[in-house]
Amino acid sequence: MTLPGETLRDSIDAIFQQVEQALRITRDAAGYQSFKISVGRIEVANLPFIPLALIRFQALYPDITVERHEMNTARQIVALKGNNIDLGFGLPAGSLLNNAELRTEPLLESSCALLVRSDHRLANVDCLNLVDLVHERLITSARAGNAPLYDSIVARFQSAGLWPNFVCETLQAQAGTTLIEQGPGVVTGAINLFTSSPQTIKYRFINDVEPMSVQMFSRLKERDSLIFDFVEMVTEGACRWRALSLQPGESRCKYAGRFTCRID
C-alpha cells in the first residue's frame, strides 16, 4: 500500500474509533439491555464489509440479538413493509427500485463476470462480450433469487440478438464453481459472489453487461436509533472498502476484481 493509502486507512480507523466511543456512551446512557434486529439477505448481496459491520455492532451491543434471514429481494421488501425484518440487502431491479415506503442505499457496483476452467477457450480472452457466450452452456443464479434481475439479464442477451443457453440455475454460488470443475458449463454472475475459488478457475469480465448495484434498504419511516447505528456501520464499511480498493486511475472492472481471490 502506498503512503497516501496508509494515511487514509489510519485516518478512517481513527474516525471509526471515535464513532464507536460515542456509541458506547450513548448505549450506556440509554440503558439498552435486551433488543433484537432482523436482517434479510440473499447470496448475491454477499459483501465482505457486511459481516464486519455485524461484528462491530454486536461488540458495541453485546446483549442485542441479530437475526439473519435468507430471502430474495422481493420477499425482503414485503417483510420490511410488514415489520418482519429491519434491514435488507440485495440487488433490486425493475419496480423493486421504486418503492415509496423504503429507503435504498447503494453500497457497491458489482460487474458481471464469466468463470471458466483455466483450459477453457475463453480463459485467456481479456475482453468478453455477450456474443462470445452464444455457444456456451451457462450456469447462473436461479430466477427464484431475484426474478426482475434475472429477467433484465435475459433481456440484455435478447437485445443483442442472443438467447442464453442456461443449463443450470442455482441459489448457491459455490455450487456453480463445483460444476465448472466437473465440466458441464461455465458460470455467469455478479463478481462479488465469488470471493474464493480453486486455482483452476479464472474470471473474465463481460464488458457489455452493465454493473449491478448492491443495495441496502430499510423503512423510510424507521425511527429506531439502533437500526440507524447499524446502517451507519454498513455505510462506513462500504465507503472504506471503496476508498481502499479503488485507487486513482483504476477502472471499475479492476475495482470489482478486488472481490475475487485471483484474476489473471
Sequence-ordered SSE layout with sheet pairings:
Layout: H1 3-30, E1 35-41, H2 49-60, E2 64-70, H3 73-81, E3 87-90, E4 102-110, E5 112-117, E6 138-141, H4 147-159, E7 166-170, H5 173-182, E8 186-190, E9 201-205, E10 212-219, H6 225-245, H7 252-257
Parallel strand pairs: 1-2, 1-3, 6-7, 6-8
Antiparallel strand pairs: 3-10, 4-10, 5-8, 5-9
Rg computed from alpha carbons, rounded to a whole number of angstroms: 20 Å
Mean residue pLDDT: 76
> What would you give as the CATH superfamily of the largest domain?
Periplasmic binding protein-like II
CATH class of the largest domain: Alpha Beta
CATH architecture of the largest domain, by name, is 3-Layer(aba) Sandwich
CATH fold assignment of the largest domain: D-Maltodextrin-Binding Protein, domain 2
Instruction: Give the % helix.
Output: 25-40%
> Termini distance?
20 Å
- Structural class estimated from helices and strands: alpha/beta
Strand content: 15-25%
Number of domains: 2
**How many β-strand stretches?**
10
How many helical stretches?
Answer: 7
Sheet with the most strands, sense and barrel status: 5 strands, mixed
Dominant shape:
globular
Low-confidence stretches: 246-264
Secondary-structure element order, as H and E?
HEHEHEEEEHEHEEEHH
